[in-house]
Predict the structure.
Amino acid sequence: MRVHIRQATMEDMEGILEIVNHEILHTTVLYHYEKLSLEQQKKWFKRKTEDGMPVLVAELSSKVVGYGTFGIFRPWDAYRFSVEHSIYVHKDYRHRGMGKLLMSRLIDIAKQNGYHTMIAGVDGSSDESLKFHKKFGFEEVGTFKEIGHKFDKWLDLRFLQLFLE
């Protein structure tokens, strides 16, 4: 079976929501406490689309098994050349190359659109995500200690950076 990477549509929001809510409820990769509603996910997608930001899905046998996106790093003009990305893969489809395909496409899109750098915010306990990003040339540039709190523990947040030029 072949994975297809494509621009998401509103019809993909249920599949993305399933991935997001699993991460919210069971991991520290998203620092949310409460699962999101389909309405919230659709508003998120609409905002991304209006902002001209990509939302990609990895599709396998007509099922959304992963997604990736990016947005401007911070909401001030001087940051307009810096994007922060997110990539999430369905728990049942990890370690099959979906994340790699999504990351490669997001990097290509960012370069084509003239962005200068891509930022990753990675949960401090996720060595797997750290290794994943380093394979693409991201360098660790700093860590915020105990910046988040979830599941009765303090969480560190690592930042990594990739120059796109």
In short: The longest strand covers residues 139-150.
